[in-house]
Amino acid sequence: MRFEQHLNQKQSQTQKLAMTQELQQSIQMLQYNTEDLLSFLEAKTLENPLMEVKIETDDYDSPIKNTKNYQQSDNDREWINELPDESISLFDYLIQQIHLNYRDTYLRKLVLFLVEYIDVNGYLSITLEEACQKTGATSIEMLDALTLLQMLEPTGVGARDLRECLMLQIEKDEEAPELAYIIVEEYFEELASRKWQVIEKAYQVELYEVQTIFDYIQKLSPNPGARFSQEKESYIIPDILVHVRDNNIEVLSTKSSTPKLIFQQAYFDKMTQAKDKEVEEYLKNRKSEFEWIKKGLLQRGNTILKVAEEIVKRQSAFFLEKDHPLVPMQLKEIAKAIDVHESTISRSVNGKYLETDFGIFELRSFFTVGLQQGESDEELSTSSIKKRIQELVNQEDKAKPLSDQKLVDLLLKEDIKISRRTVAKYRDELNIQSSSKRKRYEKQK
């Protein structure tokens, strides 16, 4: 058996990206929002004595909300008068009221027991039977304790279900419609599912009167305790400022999004005098780290600004016109325009915010898909179509609301061709109910 070994030398050239630590952290810095970036830099200053971070603010004194939808909700009622002076939990607020209003009796001990089972929305999460078993109280004593609990603020607290919660609120409201309490008590399911003909027949009332009660119920709170457990509003620190003056659009980076790195030269000079090789190597590494972080920070700011400028350029109508229309735009279009990878655009717009005179918007929200319209090359953005659907619904005759098919027909007259299924999808995304649930009954004049 003959064995032969042949050795060949071959040279090949391949190209691949080496993900160094510096490159990985540069990518991370671009992906961070402003708050995360500041946390990252502060952590680096703890590790690197040669680096100091100077953060300049744009004088934001209060939390700023994302105001993409800047219509006030109907649920924003004057509940502030019912809230205690200090921001406390629902549990503590109830305990305060119990000690203030009720004497130290066995019944008060039962009320305090029940408070332990009030959830964050204000509902009682234990049955009276279970409460009796745990405390040894009679069913009458426990019912009395529940009654005392339900007399506390916020109105509706201590309810065992949604119907009871609404009934408690109606009972305390002197301006509640006359039949509201009894209808919620006996025909709650029919009222909610809009089977109003049953109620009309049972109480010999007109449909418009049921409509009035239904409208009133809509204004009550289904979760009376929820406002005590709201998380503290987080700050949105805009990365970009857009100013419009005489139809000219100016795009600027905010001070907060571009923190300054300061090199501690005096400390560096002092430490180099030690003439210690280990110290010199340490200082060399820390100075190198400072330089690439500073370079990465500058590159991050420039990239976000370039992306924002291109977005504003393509969406100029949004900033100049009163109805703020958006045109179809995709990540790859911006990537091609500024000659970067699409993933870079994605990192640049996620969690980054742009401030205007009329609100604050996430950069990602300016990217919308479009629908081809007929034989034309023009595309219409989905946001524009949704906006038109919303306008048509707002203008409809509430006694004869527009069906999805009718909306399709009206849009077709405006050369907007979409299917009934698409209309239904957009309607759901806009939180618009079906036509049967939008129908209103008004008193005939």
TrEMBL record:
Residues 281-440 form the RNA polymerase sigma factor 54 DNA-binding domain. One of its GO terms (biological process) is DNA-templated transcription initiation. Residues 82-267 form the RNA polymerase sigma factor 54 core-binding domain. One of its GO terms (molecular function) is DNA-binding transcription activator activity. Keywords: DNA-binding, DNA-directed RNA polymerase, Nucleotidyltransferase, Sigma factor, Transcription, Transcription regulation, Transferase. GO terms for cellular component: DNA-directed RNA polymerase complex. Belongs to the sigma-54 factor family. This is RNA polymerase sigma-54 factor. It comes from Vagococcus carniphilus.
